[in-house]
Amino acid sequence: MSASERHGETPAAGRPRSATTRAQTHLWVAQRVTAMVLAIAVVVHLVMIVMAVRGGLSAAEIIARTRGNEAWLAFYVVFALAAGVHGAIGLRNIAAEAVGLRGRGADLAWVAAGLVTAGFGIRAAIGLYA
Amino acid sequence: MDLRARSHPTYLAFVVHRVSGLLLALFLPVHFWVLGTAIQGEARLDGFLRWTDNPMAKAAETLLVVLLAAHLAGGLRVLALEFLGWRARQKDMVAASAGIALLVGLVFLLNVV
Amino acid sequence: MAEVASLKVSVWRGGEQGHFARFDVPARENQTVLDVVTHIQRELDPSLAYRFACRVGMCGSCAMTVNGRARWTCRTHVRKVVDADGALELRPLANLPVIRDLAADLAPFFDKWSRAHGTFQPKDARDGAVPDDFAVVPPASKQRREADAGIECIGCAVCYASCDVVAWNGDYLGPAALNRAWTLVNDVRDGGRGERLDAVAGDAGCHSCHSTQSCTERCPKNLDPSAAIAGLKRVLFWDTLLGRR
Lengths: 130, 113, 245
What we know:
The complex is a heterotrimer. Chain A has helices spanning 3-6, 17-53, 59-66, 70-99, 104-129. By secondary structure, chain A is mainly α. Chain A has a single domain (14-129), classed as 3 helical TM bundles of succinate and fumarate reductases. In chain A, helix 2 (17-53) crosses helix 4 (70-99). The radius of gyration of chain A is 19 Å and the shape is elongated. Chain B has one domain: Fumarate reductase/succinate dehydrogenase, transmembrane subunit (3 helical TM bundles of succinate and fumarate reductases, Up-down Bundle). Chain B is elongated. In chain B, 33% of the residues are buried. Chain C is of the alpha+beta class. In chain C, helix 3 (107-115) packs parallel to helix 7 (175-185), helix 4 (142-150) packs antiparallel against helix 7 (175-185) and helix 7 crosses helix 10. Chains A and B meet through helix 2, helix 3, helix 4 and helix 5 of A and helix 1, helix 2, helix 3 and helix 4 of B.
């Protein structure tokens, strides 16, 4: 029994170890690239939150800022994509370490979940724009 | 879990980062979905926003803002460690991250009430 | 601490399954944790299994879990780790199989050094031939300083026993092996860089590290494996992004 079998990490059949580690490295790179995007986006988001709640939240105030504004649309689309992917990869790592959920199938499912989440966010961003 | 070996500041920073990240990642799809549904019109969005005026929602919002700020500040520390090799004064950087998170929460509270 | 006449020592007995045995050991003004263990084995219970060799912090064989934290016992003074009631709790190192009592099996730890390509691969003389000349490595160069920062590792496995990622993922190479890989990645005379970076990438390698810095916190030699792992991540990040691997 190999060390990887003993610890429940079964390399996908027929996939060489280097392909597996390369895919894992790509997930990590995606995690850090999205982190860098989010580092800026979250600062903007927090500033907008604090400004928006001054004197009470109002739909008119929010929509006046975003309707027909391509810059805000682009910002929120990029923000949603980065947040969805970043969150999903984070959950993947927690699931792997806490309950041993590992493997290529799980990784692909997490990325899909992240993209679906991002899709919800993009839908909201389009709602604010249109 | 032996806490005697897990009480140094960078370990606590990891726990805060993980817990805040987990909660934010679970909140994110809900946030997006509810917002996307509410934004079907100004009146509907306003109706949703009025619902969030209750104190429980405000408390939850404040918690989320603090979690987001904590994850941001802690994440910047990790990025600085990994990409800039800032290994010195890690304890001070952890303290600064915590300070930023609480400060952002305070600013939010002062503006929301 | 000097006031207590005797130390109340709880010592792990058995293998993975076992129990604590209680011993009373006379407290001394100057006394290391290894002195306490040696006293128990020589005076109280000769069947106690533990390991040591040099007694001066060079060989890395005497590490144990002392009051919940991994430490080198030969250079840990009792008064530094014992509170007013003189209680001392000794266990074998965590994250490793237990041979018996205080002796942990370090084989998985050293296996991972080789999996991380922890051996020097001479660039000039792969076939074992003697190179024509000495390699000139300026000690002040950035790469040499990075290598020097991690070179004093004694292989005591304190970092490995302190690392939660090792506990969560049995395949994870651990701080010492990754620290070793980073010193070799920075060794300009080494020719195995590409394969080594492949070996330390992914979930079993540097990318699982969460920078809790327990390794750095506990390293008795004051090395910074956490920073070494960050260095590996940095190199792999740019290599991946720029399509160099």
